[in-house]
Amino acid sequence: MPRRRRMRKVVAPPLFKGYKPFGSRGKQTDAIELNYEEYEALKLADYDLMNHAEASELMGVSRATFARIYETARRKIAKAFVECKSIKTVYGNATLDGSWFECKSCDARFTIPEQQTDNVCPMCSNPKIESLETK
User: Which CATH architecture has domain 8-13+30-95?
Assistant: First the structure.
């Protein structure tokens, strides 16, 4: 029996739901699903310029596991570019650092400070918000 998968810590969810290729003439095919933890690995290694040891510590996984997550993310993005497929972010096997919410009206993603009592979207003041941890 395989070991239970450890949840990967993600500091913040991606600010986008996905990307679509621009100017493709072919019929749109299936989207490539990029997990939150794969996005986080790309962000930490390529955008924040952390080495794998630092990034793996931040995500709460081993360095080897981080390298596998990072490699999977790179392969998925390369496949999306070469095959002209859209990229869609999905929750995956991650736990968010803090309580993140999404507004059902304007699609904004945000956290609510503990001292704030009203649970409304800070962008449009709509009370229809949903926790990202339940997705």
Answer: Orthogonal Bundle (1.10)
